[in-house]
Amino acid sequence: MKILLAAVNAKYIHSNLAIYSLKAYADVEEVELAEYTINQQKDEILRDLYLRKPDVLCFSCYIWNMEYVETLVREIAKLCPHLPIWLGGPEVSYDAAAVLERLPAVKGVMKGEGEETFAQLCRIYQKDWNDWEEADCKLLKIDGITFRREPTQGDLDGAEEATEKIIENPWRPVMDLSCIPFVYKDMEKFRNKIIYYESSRGCPFSCSYCLSSVDKRLRFRDLELVKRELQFFIDQEVPQVKFVDRTFNCRHEHALAIWQYIKEHDRGITNFHFEIAADLLNEEELELLGNMRPGLVQLEIGIQSTNPDTICAIRRTMDFEKVKGVVERIKSGGNIHQHLDLIAGLPYEDIESFSRSFDEVYRLRPEQLQLGFLKVLKGSYMEEKQSDYGLVHKSDPPYEVLYTKWLSYEDVILLKGVEEMVEVYYNSGQFTDTLEALAEEFPSAFAMYEDLWHFYEMNGLLGVQHKRSSRYEILLSFIRKVLLEKVEIYRERLTYDYYLRENAKTRPSFAGEYPVEKEALRAFYESEEKEHRYLPAYTSYDRNQMRKMTHIEYFAEEDRYILFDYLERSPLDHRARTCEVSGLFLAKKTQRV
């Protein structure tokens, strides 16, 4: 007997915590795991599933993989027509009967929390594999499933034909989160993967677009257990652990204890990611976060909109002024990466309202600004309100908004363009100095990204795989078009941004000829080899090594020499340490091109 749990992840670096938890809780030798990605060919996955020869096949289903799963289900059923196939996960839990109608090859759906349900299924298939009628009788007693019951002998007796029935069993009561085993005992299988961890399930809020609002049964893993497991990650020097708790700081004592523990036991390597509600942070938590090692934690904060009518309609409780104050305070500490989210397509938010939300959040200068689009999830309150909102979304996963009563499809197209520009230029972290100054030249930051997208569109630059250095060239061309009189100032800003991130030995063409004399460079590094005035961390390096690990640039507009030190990068954004070098050089006056 082989029961195969299969996951199709969004990327190779992702791992699927759900299937590892199901296997660990069931504690059955016959359970095997298979992880794939949506970037693989479906034929490749199909071949592997077939060659594994499972006796029972289970898929973990989400909005990003449902199309793949449905195709695989239909094709594997042709190759193995008697193979029992089960689905589970949020994408199938809230319309399980419709899923079975749509996919005749699927035996059943595990709804909601799956550990105990899967464990019971394993026991049934282990014992009654060859007696499908007895197995179906036992399935009737399992909470948390919807399944296809085959016609019994009684149904067939005296009847020309009998049809199968779809049985909706009750949802399962929630389980004790502390009973789920820790899945990360062998870290070798998670090498080069993001590690996901949960210390709570459920959410206290009722956001209409989120499935977590359906599950009000908030519960927490035992804190002493959590501490031991976090210590394991720290001891194993795991690069990053992402908490999947929906609102990590909804219970203050829980969040405070975990943050205090990782601060006290930090070894300078592991980063912990938390999704939080910023306006719930109290003074004690803010004080603790302010004293964290730079790079120890990063925070994801879902703002979604700053329009009060929108916030009310989506049933959020968010005080933006308080969020703003918290984000600014955390940013002033310079030690925590902040990721802020906006959602386009929410009720009462037209293009003008969304642009205001964008500008207000942009002014907070988070390390990442994610512009997402409303996804109308099955089972969510937003799905119920579609008619009221004039909300039309795509039929296929991820059910993304097409238009609403307030936002046209033309607006959505524009916002998609702005999203792409934000991702390329802002979220890459490669143009920080340039963008900060450039945004001041436009009526708003949103207007700047809108104009930049139109520039891409008009010049045939969309849909092209541009090299990193080409993005600088394109931005400079855009600046030349809209601010010709300031192009030299912005050329230098782009050069500064470029060398903040790139220890490049080949000079980019947009920067022009290198303006520092070779003799001046030689004299500087000879001096540093003896004195280490500007490079105190380089005492074990000679002049040639120092020259390879640093860069010096002259900026004529400010008449300054800047040293870029790539040995001492920021743990938050990996930018080089910089310092001004004074009185040592004469600039080589060259014609800029």
Automatic annotation (TrEMBL):
Asked if the keyword Transmembrane helix belongs to this entry, the reply reads: no
Record key words, sorted: Iron, Iron-sulfur, Metal-binding, S-adenosyl-L-methionine
- Which stretches make up the Radical SAM core domain? 189-419
Task: Recall the GO molecular function terms of this protein's record.
Answer: 4 iron, 4 sulfur cluster binding; catalytic activity; cobalamin binding; metal ion binding
Q: Which cofactor does it need?
A: [4Fe-4S] cluster
Q: Could you tell me which CDD domains the record lists for this protein?
A: radical_SAM_B12_BD
At the top level, the lineage of the source is Bacteria
Domain B12-binding per the UniProt entry, residue ranges: 1-132
Q: Which residues cross the membrane?
A: none
One Gene Ontology CC term in the entry: cytosol
What PANTHER family does the record tag this protein with?
Answer: ANAEROBIC MAGNESIUM-PROTOPORPHYRIN IX MONOMETHYL ESTER CYCLASE-RELATED, SLR0320 PROTEIN
UniProt name for this protein:
B12-binding domain-containing radical SAM protein
